[in-house]
Amino acid sequence: MLLEVLAILLIINMAILIHEMGHAIAVISQNKHAKAEIYFGSSSKEKKLKLNLGRITCYLTIAISAFCRTSNIEKLPPITYKQRIIIFIGGPLASLLGFGTLYVTTHYISGVAGNIVMNIAGASFFLFITPLIPFTYPSFLGGGPSDGLQISNLIKENRKQRKAV
């Protein structure tokens, strides 16, 4: 049973990593000097596996929540409305692409490995759909706004600014 729980946590963490990498890639694609950090669990860097992937740094541990942030935002020009939308959509889009890729891959892999890949694909699909729903995560999942809520708030804010002009 312990092995099953560990396998489920690793599957969830792989799907979360795919999702957060989408946000991180969107961040670094906006500016050639931008750097992104992905944190699993809390924003603490202690007792976490540090993984450097170019301008993306991941602080990994076993967790059921994660987030991405721009690490050097104070050195960059202000982010535009369109850039913010792209960053928020990057995670769900990466999850969708991850789902498609992993699902197709399962047709070529059988046995336990195929089942694991299929489960990561399913978790990725879940992380495509649910973050697009506008809601606030419960505190045990970080308590922050979903990608959908951030996009919704951004659109509302942009409409207010346009009406004011």
Overview features:
single chain, 165 residues, alpha+beta, 4-stranded mixed beta sheet, 4 helices, 4 strands, globular
Q: Round the Cα radius of gyration to an integer and report it.
A: 17 Å
Helix content: 55-70%
Relative strand content: 5-15%
Please count the helical segments: 4
Oligomer: single chain
Biggest sheet: strand arrangement: 2-3-1-4
**Head-to-tail CA distance between termini:** 61 Å
**Largest beta-sheet characterization:** 4 strands, mixed
Offer a concise description of the structure.
It contains four helices and four strands.
Describe this structure in words.
With 165 residues, this protein is an alpha+beta fold. The chain has helices spanning 2-30, 81-105, 111-129, 147-164, and strands at 36-40, 49-53, 56-60, 66-70. A hairpin with a 2-residue loop joins strand 2 (49-53) and strand 3. Helix 1 packs across helix 2. 28% of the residues are buried.
What is the topology?
Elements: H1 2-30, E1 36-40, E2 49-53, E3 56-60, E4 66-70, H2 81-105, H3 111-129, H4 147-164
Parallel strand pairs: 1-3
Antiparallel strand pairs: 1-4, 2-3
